[in-house]
Amino acid sequence: MEFIKEEIEDTSDPEPPRIKHEDTEEPTGWIEVKRQRHEVNEVEEEHYKIKTSRKKAKQLHTCSQCGKSYAGASSLSYHLHVHSGEKPFNCDQCGKKFITSSQLKIHLIIHSDEKPHVCSYCGKSFLWLSSYKHHQKTHNDVRDHVCCECGNSFITAGDLKLHRRIHTGEKPHKCSYCDKSFAQSGNLKAHETTHTGEKPYYCTQCGKGFTAASSLSYHLRVHSGEKPFNCDQCGKKFITSSSLKKHLTDHSDEKPHVCSYCGKSFSQLKHCKQHQKTHNEVRDHVCCECGKSFTKAGSLKQHRMIHTGEKPHKCSYCNKSFTVSGHLKVHERVHTGEKPYHCTQCEKSFTKSAALLTHIKKHFSVLE
């Protein structure tokens, strides 16, 4: 009975007895696992602290003008240039300015001859991988981005996004000088230069400045002589697709622009306006040297070269130079042998359009 009583008293003890025999101690492996778990917990806790501190840091560097937040003070500093318009990094080759040095570095590649991405279909090379991939899709005709409104398909998601704005009427890019807004950021940039007078794109060959990179690109073809757009009816070549489109109206019978004075019709509006000035005798472009007046600013500009002796259009084959670009074009055909004006009645071709017209009249005189 005493034994039982002793046992009961022992079990009522609030702290259980600790038996310290060697064979009941925790295995060494288990202790190691517990230690490793403790270390992992410490690492996770430290990671959480870093993550939290980063979030706090983001909240600390906030733009007071638009509310955008940045992880670092330097990122906010670069962002503030967007509001101030400051572009401290200048390209020494074309004068274009950039907000960050990294943007300038990327831009400088344009001036280098390096084009590492070569198309396996046509051999055309590209500076940027994205441009190369976009180009290759034109060979494969992969247009996997389809507009759900009209069914038009596009090569890239970006092209589709821009197209969708035609349907939505969205123009998210607003001019900071007037009330105009634009669907594309590039169009906004080009527009804003009309307010600022800025011409950030400079030709390295003649120093002429342009408001848009595309305008500079077209201008460079004047120096290189490249004319990639061909008329399939007369063989005449053009620097831009828009110039070719205007030219094609000369071949069509459609002449929608009619002179209200004499009824003469024209394929292009500018030609109609030019003609109407001959009726009105509106010669509002006057030469300050001799008083001679002209219907067009372009005609006055060409006339002024008589006084200045300027001949800006130089032949790339000999030393001759010309006041009018058209005269240079005709002259250079003496060197190249090019005859872009073809007779549709026979196989003859000519260097001048006037010579072709004279020749065509011979065909009609034979018919008469």
From TrEMBL:
SMART domains recorded: ZnF_C2H2
Region: Disordered, residue numbers: 1-26
Major subcellular site: nucleus
InterPro entries referenced in this protein's UniProt entry, alphabetically: Snail/Krueppel_Znf, Znf_C2H2_type
Location in or out of the cell: Nucleus
GO CC, one annotated term: nucleus
GO MF, one example: DNA-binding transcription factor activity, RNA polymerase II-specific
Keywords on record: DNA-binding, Metal-binding, Nucleus, Repeat, Transcription, Transcription regulation, Zinc, Zinc-finger
Protein function: May be involved in transcriptional regulation.
Protein name: Zinc finger protein 239-like
Gene: LOC109082334
